[in-house]
Design goal:
With 421 residues, the protein is α+β, with helices and mostly antiparallel strands. The protein has helices spanning 2-5, 15-29, 33-47, 71-77, 124-137, 152-161, 171-188, 190-201, 206-219, 226-233, 249-253, 266-272, 277-289, 343-365, 369-411; strands at residues 52-57, 63-69, 84-86, 99-105, 111-119, 145-148, 166-169, 295-297, 303-305.
Length: 421
């Protein structure tokens, strides 16, 4: 804030003051956050009939697990349930509960969220509860593929709940573990490092990967390396990281833009109207590479050139434009929210404004003894009135907090949103 006040010395608070204030806020809202969360979920349910949430409490009525998903995500999952990613290693909340988002891929190749949860710890029983809640929200439709890290409790829960689906480990986690073991070896042997990357990144089929791997192991004398052996034994669990590629802001802004044609080829014109922007751009790249045509001369002097239309059976519906807008926009009317300056901003503006006036008045008052006495007199009265106001506000806040806490304890959580083990 030094730029705001012009000089670091003029900032009326320190970093320690901010830390103390944050700690104070945490203590004030520590026991009210569950009630606020439930109230928020109920408000969302009222606005969006398809909003879904479930909660599990322990024997002491403390939150053990939590799951929620909005209606738009449930509708999107009905079409894009071919693969999801599940990862609890990204972040935890203030109670050290791992955050557990379910991430999928839409027809634009973008990551979308299919619900989110919090679990008390990463034990198999908590994952079983969370996966059952997810399955119930999705009408019993399990994903066809799921990508996770190498957590054994997670694998056990997936085998129990999502019966018969394909489970793969995220290649990023596999490679990270391999890097920890093979980092020095790769750094000292650049040809081996290049061969390893080529084998992992550029193999388009299992047979090609296996062939490259065997050649690499023999060429660089690594057939007895236990870390390479571990990677080979877990090969079937690898998943290309390109599947869950992130999407930049620029890509998001061009999703619905008209894509330029680089030719008047009928195949390009056909696919342009079928596939989404991101997927059509990938099609164009491939088409530019393979744009040479084989021309056959006919007896009448004309030429027969290539193919003019892609048969429908080769069009992947998964990546075409979705006519159902409710997969992107929820089918309920969003409440009108008046855009205005947040309270924090208003507070800063009030402070800046009144500080300027105080400084000007103090400068004038200090020119004479009478002016100084007058300023002190009104300053004393101002402090008294301000202290009275602060005390009244504190009493009001405590009363509202006690009423809210009592209301939550008396109403409890609706039974239909409580799930046991």
């Amino acid at each position: 804030m030094s730029w705001f006040y012009g000089n670091p010395k003029d900032v009326p608070y320190t970093t320690k003051d901010i830390a103390n204030q944050r700690a104070k806020f945490r203590m004030e809202y520590r026991h009210a956050d569950v009630g606020s969360t439930i109230s928020y979920f109920q408000d969302m349910k009222a606005q969006d009939p398809d909003f879904y949430w479930r909660i599990k409490l322990d024997d002491e009525d403390r939150v053990e697990n939590l799951f929620w998903i909005d209606g738009a995500s449930r509708r999107a999952y009905a079409r894009y349930n071919d693969v999801i990613s599940f990862d609890t290693t990204y972040i935890t909340n203030m109670y050290k509960m791992p955050c557990a988002p379910f991430i999928g891929i839409n027809n634009h190749g973008q990551s979308i969220q299919f619900g989110c949860g919090f679990v008390r710890n990463e034990l198999s029983g908590n994952f079983v509860w969370l996966f059952n809640a997810f399955l119930h929200a999705m009408g019993g439709i399990a994903p066809k593929n799921i990508i996770t890290d190498q957590d054994f409790a997670m694998r056990s829960a997936i085998d129990e709940v999502f019966i018969g689906i394909v489970h793969r480990n995220c290649r990023w986690h596999i490679m990270k573990k391999a890097q920890e073991k093979l980092g020095k070896l790769m750094a000292d042997d650049e040809p081996l490092n290049n061969a390893f990357k080529d084998c992992v990144d550029n193999s388009l089929a299992v047979e090609e990967f296996e062939h490259k791997w065997r050649v690499m192991m023999e060429a660089y004398g690594q057939t007895d390396n236990e870390h390479f052996q571990w990677l080979w034994e877990n090969m079937k669990c690898w998943v290309p990281d390109k599947v869950m590629a992130s999407v930049s802001k620029e890509q998001l802004e061009t999703v619905y833009k008209e894509t330029e044609m680089y030719s008047m080829n009928p195949l390009e014109m056909q696919v342009r109207g079928l596939y989404t922007h991101n997927l059509f751009c990938k099609f164009q790249v491939e088409m530019k590479v393979k744009s040479a045509y084989k021309c056959d001369a006919l007896d009448d002097g004309t030429f027969k050139i290539g193919v003019y239309e892609i048969p429908e059976k080769y069009i992947l519906k998964r990546w075409t434009w979705d006519p159902e807008e409710d997969l992107i926009q929820p089918d309920f009317e969003q409440p009108t929210v008046k855009k205005s300056m947040p309270e924090e901003g208003k507070s800063v503006m009030r402070y800046t404004s009144i500080l300027k006036e105080f400084k000007a008045s103090a400068k004038d008052a200090c020119l004479t003894d009478d002016g100084t006495r007058l300023a002190r007199k009104h300053l004393y009265n101002f402090k008294e009135e301000l202290e009275t106001l602060k005390n009244n506000q504190l009493r009001k806040a405590r009363k509202e907090k006690e009423e809210a806490k009592g209301s939550f304890q008396s109403s409890r959580i609706p039974a239909q949103y409580l799930w046991g083990g």
